[in-house]
Structures are given as structure tokens and as C-alpha cells.
Amino acid sequence: MRFAGKVQSAETDFRKLVQSEQADDFIKQRAFIHLVDLGSEQKKWQQVLDDAKTVQKQFPANEHQLYLDYRIAEAFLQTDQVDAAVQKLEGLQESISKLKDEAPPWWEEVWILRAQAALEEKEYSDLEDVVDDLRSRSPESKVIHRADLLLGRGYENQAKFEEARSAYLRAIESESGSGTETAAEAQFRVAESYLKQNNLKLAFKEYYKVYTGYDAPGYEAAALFQAARADAKMKNWKGAVQTFKILLEEFPQSEYADDAKQQLNEIETAFPELISESK
Asked: Which of 116, 120, 123, 122 is nearest to 148 (CA)?
């Protein structure tokens, strides 16, 4: 049922199963795993922690221990319990490494979470090591674009802009990342890196690549807003007006809409001739 989009109904049914006296241990464990997955999908992190720990307590010999630890680590990380997450993730990395070719299909997600934790802790050397290790272990990785995005953010945080852009471009151009929302975010960050270097012309160009190249409304709206502001800083008022209007027409409900309206009004008040020109 969960795959049919009936999330609440599925969650109710699985909850009944884990509480049922008629259901055997195997059924209860499977139902708990579904509940943990549903909690993760809905970002109900405390529910994930409660359900995963309940399984481990009620069924200590269950065959899903590693998977449950992975979900617990994910929930720890999403609830700012970074130290607890890292402890879980390091244990998982050690266990998975011992499994070699028998590693579970989700194992790469552990390395992604470990990279995310390193980024949040500003442990940039660890971040590089984790991403390099993932690349070495899985040359055909389907998630390496996500790792490169995290690596790029680490470099950007250190003002290593060339290294950051190289990592972002790997994410954008990779087979696994091409056309994804992760690639859209990487493209947006390329533009941001140029903005931080006060290269407004290149920043503007790179922002527009997000809008023209991806179906990612959140990043498209952010890129248009930043592109318009870059134009305004360059005193290209006409271009700024045009871009603010595109943003308001195509993404009227975005978080940038109110600020865009205000800045558009300020420009048109200062330069009333642009009102007729932009119609």
C-alpha cells in the first residue's frame, strides 16, 4: 500500500500488525521495517528512532540489525545528534567493510551520511577521506554525485573555490547525477561560489543555467532571485526587472516572492521608465 501513495492507511495497517497477538515474529519485524521506512520518508525522525529501537529490543536476534542501525544513524543526524550518528556510522562502516561482496544494497548511503556528518562538524579532512574511500570502493557508484556535492560544500566553506567548482562539476556531469535535483543544487553552488568572489557576470551566467537546465523549482526560484540581485548590483536595472518578473510569474509561491516584489517595486519606483519597457 505504501507504494500506492496511501501512506497513512499503510502506516495504520502496519501499526496494527506490530500490535497484533495473531501476527508472528517474522510478520511483526517486517511491519516494523516498513514503519521505519515510512517514518524516514516522511521525516518523522523520532518515530524512526522509536520504532527501530523497539525492533532491536523486542527481537535482538533479528536479521535487520545493520539496516536498523543505518536508519537510527540517519535519524540521529537529522535531529542534530551528530556525535551519536558518527558513532553509529563508524560501526556500520566497519561491519560493512567486513562483508565485502555481501554488503547490503544500501551500504553506500552510510558513506553519504558519514560525509554529511563530517561536513556538519567542519571536519573537512575527514570529509575528503570519506568521499575518496567511497569512490575507491565503488567506482560505478550511483550516489557519488551526492558525495561530490558535499565535498564541494566543504571546499566552498573553506573558500577553496576552484576545488569546490571541480567537485560541483563532477556532480553535474556524472552519469548518476545528470539532470537530478542534486545537480541543480551543485549548479546553484557554482554560481554562489562566483558571487562570493564578487564575479557578478559569471555568477549571473551560472545562476541562469539552473533556471534553463533543470526541473527543480526550489533551486530555479533561488537562482532567478540571485541572478536578479546580481544584475541590480551591476546596475543593469532592466535585466533585474525582467528576471524578478520571471520569478514572480513562474514561481509566485516561492519563498523569494515577497522579497522579489519589494525589490522590483524599489527599482521601478527609482526608474519608472522601466515599467513600460518591461511590459
From this structure: 116
